[in-house]
Amino acid sequence: MVLLKDTTIGVANRTTEDIGTEGDEDLQQVFRGSDVESIEEIIDNVIESNGRSRKTLILILQKIQNRLGYLPRWSLELVSNNLKVPLSNIYGVATFYHQFSMELPGEYVIQVCMGTACHIKGNSENYNFILNLLNINPGENTSRDRLFTVFKVRCLGCCSLAPVIKVNDEIYGEVDFKKIRKIVSKYRATARGRKDNGMEVYR
Q1: What is the DSSP letter of 1?
Q2: Within this chain, do residues 39 and 91 fall inside the same structural domain, yes or no?
Q3: Residue 52 within a domain
Q4: What is the extent of the structural domain holding 73?
Q5: Which DSSP category does 146 fall into?
Q6: Distances (CA, A) of 154 to 98, 99, 108, 116, 157
Q7: In what order do the strands lie in the sheet with 108-113?
Q8: Which of 21, 39, 66, 139 could disulfide-link to 6, CB 3.0 to 4.6 Å?
Q9: Does 127 lie in the same domain as 60?
Q10: CA distances from 148 to 112, 141, 145 (A)
């Protein structure tokens, strides 16, 4: 299935104190205020244009994920209250479609193309290499330091550059293990530089 994830993620900035918190109840406090207002506005606008239906629900969830980068529990509660749909039904839709994520993504989202050209040229191996390089456990997709989230996607539309990966908005073609190491090192160095300058940002 195609992962419809907008990597231009408008997630609220988190401080180093926030990183230590665990559970969605604590994360609510990070996103409260303007984020809640923007999510309520998204819900209202979609309902006004499309009414209340399953199609409306999916569209709302897509727009919320584009705004926050994932679907925190409190956002699903807002959707449930506004659509008058049981929260269990909202969860059912959010967990059924692979395009939705209920986990906070890393700062850098790595999309590994699995289109025919990229698959033939070794991106399955590259995907496994990235997971091992980032010490991401089986069944997970985000590194422990929350710098990287890794996803497979069907096609990035850059077949002539196969195999291809995308990190946020940057496309990298003809990647192999050596090139992937350099790419990951570059983003780690960028994050480390911000931290050293007191400008660390988390998503």
Answers
A1: -
A2: yes
A3: yes
A4: 16-96
A5: S
A6: 12, 11, 19, 9, 9
A7: 148-153, 108-113, 165-167, 170-172
A8: 66
A9: no
A10: 13, 8, 8
Q: Which two tokens stand for residue 103?
A: 């986990």
- Among 96, 128, 159, identify where a domain stops: 96
Whether 162 and 13 have beta carbons less than 8 Å apart is answered as no
Question: CA quadruple 118, 124, 125, 129: dihedral positive or negative?
Answer: positive
pLDDT tens digits along 63-122: 998 888 889 999 999 999 988 899 999 999 998 887 788 888 899 999 999 999 999 999
Give me the phi and psi of 196, to 5 degrees please: -65, -25
Question: The domain spanning residue 133 has which CATH number?
Answer: 3.40.30.10
Q: Report the mean per-residue pLDDT for the chain.
A: 81
Pair 21, 85 in one domain = yes
Pair 131, 175 in one domain: yes
Give 166-198 pLDDT, tens digit per residue.
999 899 999 999 999 999 999 999 998 877 666
Q: Two tokens at 48?
A: 């006004």
